[in-house]
């Protein structure tokens, strides 16, 4: 598994100029170690980068094993479906799932990977802020445990579980074009990440199939929160030629967009057509209900856990595997024909 | 800190009848240990319950420290505000926050506490399925790290951060009574847990202040999901004397209740008054908007992290501390006077 060469207790003993038994007494907080001796041994450990192999020990003692899941953020309600299902599959197999948030920062992703390695976490599933980031890629290569990517598709040496966001965006855009809309605004997240990039691709694909060139002023990227969506919606509707349809493709930002429309006295459906990039209670129970893209997050969680379990068992699998769950469009009252 | 007496390497050596150096070679996966010797040492370790002190080592080497947060479930959207804020405070202090879900089961809570102890997690914040559960209480006493309770108030030897759910429920019920409602149905979660218990108390308090005895058939407890709320609402509205107001006090179950009303062709606000036990995008953007109880989850997260940091630093604090953030009622269009 390409684990880096480990420093042994006897290396520490040699470096510190003490007996092996002394090192192990320091390691075990033995009360009879003098502070001087302790300091000498600790310096040697720090210098050599000594690490105790916790997993080997915990496995032998039949202790529960760990899988870590590191995601951008915890405030995407539907993502709980992924976690819940992955957790159930892993628990069944004797693993505890721990979550950590990366807040979408590469340095935290790298720090977590290293912390997981040091604590001998058995497997990791995670999102990445930027799959092209050189240091992140290096940290992934240095990981001694299997890593599976969640909704990222750029590193083909790793297992990946994604949703077919491109197809979802293509369906949504084709639907709006079919209703006669041409000034379609798109709110999308971080284009460095796979989901937003694929959504934009699907949007462009549908436009070009209809012989239409999307207006660059109607595209807003880096919409990452409800507040971002609020601001983007206000500024779009203030244009001299405002959009007639809003494709709110960024995850979990529909609330911000609807709040902005309400503030401006514009009715979703009547005044402007609205499509949500992901379904929610809000989309379903809004008046009118909001047309939305949906996919099976529980299935994604199940696939991710199952694929990671296969890797942790050491099954012989050649290369990284990519699995994409399909997306569907649920057409509701918020998308209407453009009045002619 | 009451850490249980730890087994030392020399105890293992004695039990296995080998030298201390041999134990440390086994611990460090030394290649020159024979399988027989390894087995003998491992048996001795298992027999004595030997545990390596990882924290002491990781702290010496200046490695990042861990706080674990174990909660019932990840699908409560507003709870992300708690996590986000707690995480920011902890990260600032050099800690990584890991999350685990208990799925509200005592055996999993106990297993996690033991896993956290073994992995030398520095501090824990958690919910509990049942504060009176004897084995859970035992596991809490055996924990060698500080544990803070999230929205639980029954174990006063521990630090607790709660919301004043009783006051929120009292305000909501008083508001409905003031509008003339008498047949008020209440949907509430697990009464073994502090939040649901306090909400019921607040409800009863308001009723008795108005000289009213709540009708037992209109109380539904153990409402834990949107599906539960859907079923409870359908069965309540099918009663010979259906309620004129619904107090959906269970966390994040408003969607299920509104879905049931829509299916039955009953309009929230017009046909029946509705109060949500916790605010959400759905409550705010629904037509009509739903009257809701709210409290500052970010403040709860900040307090929890700060109090836990004080404990982890070993500050001298006598006894467990309890901190309750206040609750407010946001009155919106879904609560209207009872037609006379």
Automatic annotation (TrEMBL), chains A, B:
Residues 7-61 form the HTH lacI-type domain. CDD domains: HTH_LacI (cd01392). GO terms for molecular function: DNA-binding transcription factor activity; transcription cis-regulatory region binding. The keyword Transcription applies. Pfam families: LacI (PF00356), Peripla_BP_3 (PF13377). Keywords: DNA-binding, Transcription, Transcription regulation. This is Transcriptional regulator.
């Amino acid at each position: 598994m390409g684990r880096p060469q480990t420093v042994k207790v006897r290396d520490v003993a040699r470096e510190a100029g003490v007996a092996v038994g002394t090192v192990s007494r320091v390691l075990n907080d033995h009360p009879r170690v003098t502070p001087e001796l302790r300091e000498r041994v600790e310096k040697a450990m720090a210098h050599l980068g000594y690490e105790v192999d916790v997993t080997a020990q915990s496995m032998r003692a039949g202790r529960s094993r760990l899988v870590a899941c590191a995601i951008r953020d915890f405030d995407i309600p539907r993502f709980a479906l992924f976690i819940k299902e992955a957790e159930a599959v892993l628990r069944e197999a004797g693993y505890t799932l721990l979550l950590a948030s990366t807040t979408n920062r590469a340095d935290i992703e790298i720090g977590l990977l290293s912390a997981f390695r040091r604590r001998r976490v058995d497997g990791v599933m995670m999102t990445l802020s930027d799959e092209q980031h050189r240091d992140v890629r290096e940290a992934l290569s240095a990981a001694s445990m299997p890593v599976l990517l969640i909704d990222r598709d750029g590193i083909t040496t790793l297992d990946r579980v994604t949703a077919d966001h491109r197809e979802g965006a293509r369906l949504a855009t084709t639907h709006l074009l079919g209703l006669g809309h041409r000034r379609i605004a798109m709110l999308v997240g971080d284009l460095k990440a796979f989901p937003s990039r694929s959504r934009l691709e699907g949007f462009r694909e549908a436009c070009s199939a209809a012989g239409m060139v999307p207006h660059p002023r109607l595209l807003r990227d880096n919409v990452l929160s409800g507040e971002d969506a609020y601001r983007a919606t206000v500024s779009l509707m203030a244009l001299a030629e405002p959009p007639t349809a809003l494709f709110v493709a960024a995850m979990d930002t529909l609330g911000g967009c609807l709040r902005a429309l309400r503030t401006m006295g514009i009715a979703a459906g009547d005044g402007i057509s609205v499509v949500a990039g992901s379904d929610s209670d809000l989309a379903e129970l809004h008046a009118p209900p909001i047309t939305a893209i949906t996919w099976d997050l529980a299935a994604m969680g199940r696939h991710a856990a199952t694929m990671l379990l296969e890797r942790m068992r050491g099954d012989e699998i050649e290369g990284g595997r990519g699995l994409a769950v399909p997306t569907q469009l649920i057409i509701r009252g918020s998308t209407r024909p453009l009045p002619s």
